[in-house]
Design a protein that fits this description.
By secondary structure, this protein is an alpha/beta fold. The chain has 14 helices and 15 strands. The structure holds pyridoxal-5'-phosphate (PLP).
């Protein structure tokens, strides 16, 4: 691959407070494993972002800040050029994280015991945060068919009638990496709008399209979608700056926007830090070349894992993602109950993956593998896995 960036470079992340490393002991009960779990990447952030932050550090005064037009224009241009989505500045607000963003939306638009629909297997806080806020989860499980997930619209039509107030959509989908089609999104929008169910579209993985795939922002698929959605996005996963915490919401509908933005404003939750605004701006202004190259590298990692497993460990199957640096691994042929599957990965293979059931009981028999790392890390991991399976 012809690239300016060296994604093969192994970088020591120890002593940087990285959760991926520092929480190994508490989460997996062992430090002696290869960390392939929490969803950040082991690659250097684009140098143009680091450079911009270095220059700002050199200035030496870090007083209160406000976002300027460079920040908003960077987002507006990014959405237009990358996702063919035209938005106005007034429809954008900073939020201090995507999970916090949907927690605030739950708080602002629903009451305790209200029903909220999610479609598992899905990113764990969709359930955890909703339940912590004392709302009732209504599951509309995805259907796994021919090696990929699809939404169950028949069941959604039924559960939509039960008085649910909100649906949290994962677009693209985590853990499977599925990019939903326009037709699927239109159908979802129709059902939700017609049943007065507001949609929170978590699009944190939007930019991480693998070569040849195109993300479709939910709010762009129809008027019903545009008028009934809070979209949550961030440069955090895209450019490996999750620790900087810089996310934003886009809300087209005026009534929904005022209610959500007033909620944020009243609590000053719409105020970012110096580096949140700066990193986001430089990411969107200067990061696209890096992003395209990193996703080519990630595609190479996915292909490598897939062909290695087919050749050496055919009991394990890759659910091919359309987006993200995460692989949903179908381990059902090993025929192990989930706890044994987890123990197998931790203690026999010495690997730290996310257990499938974290994403809902529908994840039984699956594990989630993070391939946002140098290829050599995956070579070591797969070698461990091959030996463990052969034991
Ligand atoms: C679907 C999804 N939403 C949100 C997040 C986390 O976002 P944040 O760190 O901005 O809260 C993740 C991280 O893995 C994710 O996969």
């Amino acid at each position: 691959m012809n690239t300016k960036y060296n994604f093969d470079q192994e970088i020591d992340r120890s002593n940087t407070n990285s959760i991926k490393l520092e929480a190994l002991e508490s989460v997996f009960g062992s430090k002696d494993i290869i960390p392939l779990w929490i969803a950040d990447m082991d690659f250097l952030t684009p140098p143009s972002i680091t450079q911009a932050m270095k220059q700002r550090v050199e200035h030496g005064i870090f007083g209160y800040v406000q976002p300027d037009e460079h920040y908003f224009n960077a987002i507006i241009n990014w959405l237009k050029n990358r996702h063919h989505w035209t938005v106005e500045q007034e429809t954008i607000s900073f939020i201090p994280g995507v999970v916090k963003g949907f927690a605030f939306a739950i708080d602002a638009f629903t009451n305790q015991n209200d029903k909220i629909i999610i479609q598992p297997p899905v990113y764990p806080p969709f359930k955890g945060t909703t339940e912590d806020l004392k709302r009732e989860i209504v599951n509309n499980p995805l259907i796994f068919e021919n090696g990929q997930y699809r939404m169950d619209f028949d069941n959604l039509r039924e559960v939509a009638k039960t008085g649910a107030k909100m649906l949290i959509l994962c677009n693209p989908q985590n853990p499977s990496g599925r990019i939903w089609t326009r037709e699927e999104l239109i159908e979802l929008a129709e059902i939700c709008y017609d049943n007065n169910i507001i949609v929170i579209s978590d699009e944190i993985h939007a930019d991480l399209e693998l070569p040849g795939n195109k993300h479709i922002p939910f709010a762009t698929v129809s008027e019903k979608a545009a008028q009934n959605t809070i979209t949550l996005m961030a440069p955090s996963k895209t450019f490996n700056i999750a620790g900087i915490v810089s996310s934003f919401a886009v809300v087209d509908n005026k009534k929904i926007r005022e209610r959500y933005f007033d909620y944020l404003e009243a609590r000053q939750l719409n105020q970012g830090t110096i580096f949140a605004y700066l990193a986001a701006q430089y990411a969107y202004e200067t990061g696209e070349e890096w992003l395209n190259q990193v996703m080519e590298y990630v595609q190479g990692n996915i292909d490598f894992v897939d062909s290695y497993l087919q050749e050496h460990i055919p009991q394990l199957r890759v659910v091919r993602p359309d987006a993200s640096f995460l692989i949903w691994l179908d381990c059902r042929e090993l025929n192990l109950p989930q706890t044994e599957l987890e123990n197998f990965f931790i203690h026999k293979a010495k690997l730290g993956l996310n257990s499938g059931t974290m994403f809902g009981e529908e994840g039984e028999g699956f594990m989630r593998l993070n391939v946002g790392c140098p290829r050599i890390t995956l070579e070591k991991a797969l070698d461990n896995l091959k030996k463990a399976v052969a034991l």
